[in-house]
Amino acid sequence: MTLAVKFHDLHPTPAATSLRDEILMGFRADQKFASPKFFYDQRGSELFDQICEQPEYYPTRTEELILAAAAADIAEIAGHEATLIELGSGASRKVRLLLEAMRPSSYLGIDISREFLLESTRRLAADYPWLEVHAACADFSCNMALPDGVCCERPVGFFPGSSIGNFDPQAAEDFLRGLHSLLPTGSGLLVGIDLIKDKATLEAAYNDEAGVTAAFNLNLLERLRHELNAEIDPRHFVHQAFFNEEQSRIEMHLVSQLPQVVAIEGERFRFLEGETIHTENSYKYTIEGFQGLAGRAGFEAHSCWTDENDMFSVHYLERG
Ligand code: AVJ
């Protein structure tokens, strides 16, 4: 039997080096921070999947409804025989909503979580035998090259889940400009964007009753303990998430419950009581606001779909 999934390992630097260097840099800052990409170890990816099933976390199920309803439209715009390239493919669940309608010739899933990526793309390949499936383990926030052997005819980028919301607006624009230079003229980009809405709904989505988002946030500290031998006690931190209206973003933090000193790779970091590690931003947009940003990066707004309550949006952008 041949290996159903063609695997490409594109780690630009050994994963461990980037984790250590980036975490240390973030902990040395006045406002301590960690990149949200470090949430996604095996356990973190599993917890994120569980977040998506929480009743308060509306983005996933809303986007899935939109995609299912728009699949035929999307297929018509993108045409058949496309190469569908998913950035941050995770469990590769949402793309299933498009495959039958679109009938692309190949699919490339790109994700930072290696084992998770392999499992998910193997399942996809087994379920869609007619589809050529590629998997690339990469940090797409810095690696902007496509692996060799991936057919790049009629590429359509797929960036669901409002993942682009992790970048601040300027970085999101720069990121899209990077995709612009990677993709040929006329290619498509299908992007999911969470919309600005009332504070209570937004905050509930990041403070689910079951505590899954809290576990997801705190799992970062477990990861630092296991992978960097950090001396840091997760029980001495609590999850915090709130909507920063001025910046139009959900902020997630880990709040130190007491004055404490933690050690990572022999370096000591002091925390005051109430001091935080800023672990994630999740920007929310208006439809026009996002289209303007995409336009500045060279992408034209072709179509946009929303749900009936205007909670979430899916955009088909065309590379000009
Ligand atoms: C994957 C970045 C889109 O911002 O909603 C969910 C991550 N963090 N709950 C988001 C997340 C906490 C999610 N993104």
UniProtKB/TrEMBL annotation:
Protein name: Dimethylhistidine N-methyltransferase
A biological process from GO: methylation
Transmembrane domains' residue ranges: none
Keyword Signal: no
Stretches assigned to the Histidine-specific methyltransferase SAM-dependent domain: 20-318
Taxon lineage: Bacteria, Pseudomonadati, Pseudomonadota, Gammaproteobacteria, Oceanospirillales
Transferase listed as a keyword: yes
GO MF entries: methyltransferase activity
Swiss-Prot/TrEMBL keywords: Methyltransferase, Transferase
InterPro entries: EgtD, EgtD_Methyltrsf_superfamily, MeTrfase_dom, MeTrfase_EgtD-like, SAM-dependent_MTases_sf
